[in-house]
């Protein structure tokens, strides 16, 4: 069919949701490492979360990404597939026998990345704000967390920062995702073609490995801007005000050295393999 059928939307949601539940604890640790300096590393962060916030602490800020993963994943794959159709006049089925050029795949991936980043921005902002709350969820008395949940977070941002407040960090997110989703799809297609005879469909094992490696490659290249994006999203809460992406980059390097750009790269990669292996497997499975 020439457009995104409904079942692909469902596939986008199911595969994204499965991957996300699996990956969310890793993501929470990453967000903490990137925007707070009080943790000595992955293990220390995990232990502190478990001790102070129980197991639930790892799943803060997950409800919104679960809801949004459907929209974000199917916009990403839908735009990617339709741009490739426009560039090469081939549908997904025809692409096995008439493989698009890596240039076309990169362009389609970048355009998909650009569009999905503006769908993702508000959901990602709420996720990061909730993940960075270190007060225990069940704490009574004084130490009440700033946001009681995702919807309270949205209304609080709207009140304090207006509608454009929900797009805080969206420019950095777009810069992070546009090139790296081009890399994501090129890596996936290149690895599939390495291990699949010409004209045939890749095996499930090939799809899993290619999808996982695509996830790692894109997250490694996305990590520097991922750190900046996270700080831009937390901006204004503790008084620090960045005057744009460059200012945030310069002051972060000045205060914490160039290593700040690689905060969370290990955990991003550990999380990215299973999440994206599942995402691509279900995507291919449903297309067949
Ligand atoms: C573009 N960037 C590398 C940031 C993400 C690429 C993979 C996105 C996937 N839904 C995941 O959660 O891993």
Instruction: Show unreliable segments.
Output: none
CATH class: Mainly Alpha
Major sheet description? none
Estimated radius of gyration: 19 Å
Number of helix segments? 9
Q: Would you tell me the structural class of the helices and strands?
A: mainly alpha
Shape: globular
Amount of helix: 55-70%
Termini distance? Answer: 12 Å
Q: Quick one: how many beta strands? A: 0
Order of SSEs: HHHHHHHHH
Please state roughly what percent of the residues sit in beta strands, choosing from under 5%, 5-15%, 15-25%, 25-35%, 35-45% or over 45%: under 5%
Averaged pLDDT, please? 88
Number of domains: 1
The CATH architecture comes to Alpha/alpha barrel
Kindly report the CATH topology: Mitochondrial carrier fold
Classified in CATH, the superfamily is Mitochondrial carrier domain
Bound molecules: N-trimethyllysine
Protein name: Solute carrier family 25 member 45
Keywords: Membrane, Mitochondrion, Mitochondrion inner membrane, Repeat, Transmembrane, Transmembrane helix, Transport
Family: Belongs to the mitochondrial carrier (TC 2.A.29) family.
GO molecular function, one term: transmembrane transporter activity
């Amino acid at each position: 069919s020439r457009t995104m059928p409904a079942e692909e939307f469902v596939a986008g949601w199911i595969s994204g949701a499965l991957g996300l539940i699996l990956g969310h604890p890793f993501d929470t640790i990453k967000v903490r490492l990137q925007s707070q300096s009080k943790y000595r590393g992955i293990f220390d962060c995990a232990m502190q979360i478990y001790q102070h916030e129980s197991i639930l602490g790892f799943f803060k800020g997950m409800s919104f990404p679960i809801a949004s993963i459907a929209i974000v994943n199917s916009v990403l794959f839908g735009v990617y597939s339709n741009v490739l159709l426009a560039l090469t006049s081939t549908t997904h089925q025809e692409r096995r026998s008439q493989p698009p050029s890596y240039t076309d795949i990169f362009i389609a991936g970048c355009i998909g990345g650009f569009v999905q980043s503006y769908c993702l921005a508000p959901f990602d902002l709420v996720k990061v704000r909730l993940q960075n709350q270190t007060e225990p969820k069940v704490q009574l008395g004084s130490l009440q967390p700033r946001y009681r949940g995702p919807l309270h977070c949205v209304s609080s941002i709207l009140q304090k920062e207006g509608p454009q407040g929900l797009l805080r960090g969206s420019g950095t997110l777009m810069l992070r995702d546009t090139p790296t989703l081009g890399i994501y799809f090129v890596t996936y297609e290149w690895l599939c073609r390495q291990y699949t005879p010409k004209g045939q469909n890749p095996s499930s094992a090939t799809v899993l490995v290619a999808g996982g490696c695509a996830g790692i490659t894109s997250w490694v290249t996305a990590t520097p801007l991922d750190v900046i994006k996270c700080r831009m999203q937390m901006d204004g809460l503790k008084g620090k005000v960045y005057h744009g992406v460059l200012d945030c980059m310069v002051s972060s390097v000045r205060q914490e050295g160039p290593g700040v750009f690689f905060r969370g790269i290990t955990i991003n990669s550990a999380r990215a393999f299973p999440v994206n292996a599942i995402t691509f497997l279900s995507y291919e499975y449903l297309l067949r």
